[in-house]
């Protein structure tokens, strides 16, 4: 368990959020899946819940959807409290599951029409709406098929069409892209973003994939062990991680963390950690001597794995991501002067892991 | 190439032989029933040591006497009707009780579901051979002696446990996502069961129907205990009452009854069999 | 169902008024409510007679009487020293085990046959269902007639084929009677087991089977290393069915041999009937009937667990 | 009681008798001289069926116009009986009961069960404390004594009307320990030997066997001369009612028995050992293991298929052969019980005993009906095609005969009936041996009374099992006897504790 009490949340919301949770908890026996979450999503905003599996992000989303009952805390949607007594069906939300949850006994058309039937939409309106949603995703010619006759991408689009068709207040998307292959995923991500912009619907998106999170979210909420560690724009979260967890979870390869002094850790991103020569005559640098153990060529850059040749830090592995534009030779087994700009250093309390100002 | 062809041919032969052996094993008693049902008695009662008398064929012209006795000398059709009535009612009750219970155990009862499910299943193991004695008291307290209602009430005691357990398996195999999706799509838990879960559990329910009906058809001890009036008997009870008279067995009519009862049911079952197979699979392992 | 609440759902109104939870949403209410009929049924209609039956087994009740004269464990201790009871217990287990093994072997083989494509497959499959569709009481009568040692068509056929030197007195010799009883059990149950196994096989993903073929696995390797392990949960269900049917069976043994010759083929159910009902010794009969229950309980619990575990594994 | 029963007789009888006579006259006209020839046997078989059909049709009528008032206050009598082996008997009995009911404003229902299901059904009714008013058993239901009414009154009334009941019947309805008549018997059925005359003639016994010894001698000869006969002698040693009767007959004829006259177990005796030794010899020389598996129908079927040349049974096998027009019918003849060193004994084949449950709702109607049944027993005997023998011999006597002479008159009528079988026997006196059946028939429990211990031994087939175990060599004769004896003692003890069995000085 982390000793963190309350992570600092950058950009405190000023207005009441469109979807908001206060002190939300969900305990399964001894396990605290969600442990006091305050989340505030503004109207029309696209918020990504990002975290490793088991961090509670899905549980949080399910509580918002009404599929799980909170152990404690409050949930508001559109300013009204819903956490206890409003069933999922009444919350005006749409959700897309990782599995797409298409009804196998219904055709694509019937799948998309299903929420409208619940709302007892009149027959002709229903048809019009379904056709509109199908057109939105290019499904016009697939409407008579059953889910088993559809490809993965087609299923995903049917699921999205079904979510869109009822004009919900909130979209809840639970890793909707994870079942697609890599190529399709990139395209789908783009389409999804476009769609959300176009519809302007408040969206909460759960993923463990930081690339998706960075690409999609207006803001990202990074979760771990049932708590939100940090929430902010992708850039903010990446550049100014609130704690060591966020720092190491985001970024690939993750931020290097090395001991600064007894009570402080210092962190720097691998892409900021370059051979001294790459900085030219720049001042305000911090230099380390890196003993390289292994070098990986990744096309656009080289990853140099090694450790700092300094007395107290010799056991701490460090990675440097050297862009291919930097042509200096880096050989395995050799030691080189590497540097990072002082402004790219981030400092963390060694004990709590929380961000702290640079020690004077 | 030729070696392969030979091997392939041998495999075909083995396949057809095996299929034939299985079919013969399953069907030959029915052929025997058929012969017995239409043979004249003097063609029937011939010792097996008489090797000249081939029992597999009609040595004398076939007769309709036994079938006539069955249909006109006994209330066979009334028993068929009673069996069908009781069967339908029991199937309906079983579905009505076991389906919700199975769902409840699978989805709503939480950690207790499994144990409770096994507990309910185990009551199926209580042997009826003796249970019928105390049961008789219960039925008489309910005033159901000699009424088909007694059977309708009692048979579910052994269909419900098994079918609840069966349905529990089926409902577990329905992905949770689907139900949650439907709840989000605007339906209450109850509506979800009706609109999503039940349509998906149709094969399971079909299994229940077949199982329950088969048991009703087979059951004898309780029928004997509760029903005494010939016009209210079910097939399994009525046929022996009418056709086993003291030390005289009316073999021809007995076999006719068995044959005439089994064949239509087998036809119905075999028309279900594909869905039934699908159903069982879904229930036993996730499809 | 819940059309009322649904009607109130309006999409994105300016000032949302959320519909509240109704009964149809409350799982904490729905769960018990849906389970209640089954529980009530089982408790009232099985539980009560069952408790009475247990009480009977501790009493010296006779001839239908439900007067419980408590005699403690006397019925049970007397049974434990009764060789006929031992034989019946042994028979019950023997009939059950042997017939289940045979049923499973036949069913797995038959399912493999039916899984292959051949002309007339549908017909064969329908015909295989016949034994299961027949009322067991009447079907057993047919077997009585088939095995009647004076008129047995089996004997006649074997004799004509020159395969039978002596004569088979089917129900007259304990060994043959056992064979006959097991034959009928197998006959009655293997079609159903075949259907179950067939169902299981249709559920094995095609790619796994193909992978095994590509890997060059022979038929038996495929059977034992791929198909059977994958079939385990389904087979467990089939075996469970079979065990329950054979262990509690009364009709087959009773109609075929009535426990004879000289009480050598009794199973617990028939012995209980003979002692308790015909012999008017109700208390002892109840004790006999209830004796198998613990054995069955253990077997059933183990198998149910097994079935569920295997299921979770897939 | 007396008043009511006498009223019953006054009201019921004449009408019924007239009906029978009318039917008889018509039948004479219709069938001419061929039909009912015997002077005393006044009704033809065909006539019976026709009458039954008419009665059934008439019975159907009330269902269509039942007067409103009658249902509300109608009393009911519910009867449960077996499916009689002679279907024509049920066709007579059911309308007979209905007609009686109609005449008294009583709604009568008659239910039937298969013979094997009587006892389970009885158990269920006792457990339910509800069911039928009148319940019919095929063997003495002594174990049910605590649950039934004492029928001393109607037993005495019937004896008053028709003279004493047949002694073996008395032993089957009366418990001397509790001094209770737990049942009322209307009929019993003799258990003669049935043999194939042609076969026995060929081996030198044209009149069939007379002793148990003959059975083995002739059996061996039959085996030699008639290889196509699978089982020369067909006496079951199986778990079945016929085997129970047959093995008891052997025991008694060798001077052995399960109990003595005072209900002490005396099975373990030299006589029993000789009887079982005889059974072993019979089995090894003249029978085969098929008889270990026989059910009630097996010996009938074997005889009718000429697969055995001798069985111990009622006349049912013969009647079946007649009904099915099997040529073997003419070859089936009868012998009385076989003689052994201990005498000549056969068990009754069926002991028809009615009981009235303690919980019966209309016990008085039930009693009234039973007396009415006995009043009309001549019809019953004929309806059963001479299968049923009257328990009160006097009940088949001509009604003008004074009571004191009725039993003998009844016996004469029975003799006349069996000597001139009205149901197509060829020759008509084929059933002659049945005339003396009373002399060589006895009850289960002989020489003592029937009792629950004997009943349990009977229903768990201990005696046929004893023979079977010895015959197959599973146990030595002595071991088989001793083992069975021990089990019998155990059973007797248990029932003595319940106070239903006397004795106590078991061997």
List keywords for this structure.
heterotetramer, A: 360 residues, alpha+beta, OB fold (Dihydrolipoamide Acetyltransferase, E2P), 6-stranded mixed sheet, 24% helix, elongated, disordered N terminus, D: 507 residues, D-Maltodextrin-Binding Protein, domain 2, 3-stranded antiparallel sheet, 20 helices, 15 strands
Structure report:
The complex is a heterotetramer of chains A (360), B (287), C (314) and D (507). Chain B is mainly α and 287 residues long. Chain B has 2 domains: 12-63, no CATH class; 76-252 and 269-286, MetI-like fold (Orthogonal Bundle). Chain B has helices at 2-38, 41-44, 65-73, 76-108, 112-122, 128-141, 148-154, 156-173, 176-184, 189-200, 202-218, 221-226, 235-243, 251-284, and strands at 244-245, 248-249. The longest helix of chain B is centred in the first third of the chain and has 37 residues, at 2-38. Chain C is flat and about 70 Å long. Residues 1-15 of chain C have low confidence and may be disordered. Chain D has 507 residues and is of the alpha+beta class. Among the domains of chain D are: 18-68, no CATH class; 193-347 and 446-496, D-Maltodextrin-Binding Protein, domain 2 (3-Layer(aba) Sandwich). In chain D, 48% of the residues lie in helices and 11% in strands. The two termini of chain D are 45 Å apart. Chains B and C meet through helix 1, helix 4, helix 5, helix 6 and helix 8 of B and helix 2, helix 4, helix 5, helix 6 and helix 7 of C.
- Can you count the helices of chain B? 14
| Ends apart, CA distance between termini of chain D | 45 Å
Please bin the fraction of helical residues of chain B: over 70%
Low-confidence stretches of chain D: 1-43, 55-72
Shape of chain D: globular
Largest sheet properties of chain B: 2 strands, antiparallel
Q: Provide the CATH superfamily of the domain at 193-347 and 446-496 in chain D.
A: Periplasmic binding protein-like II
Concise account of the structure shown:
By secondary structure, chain A is of the alpha+beta class.
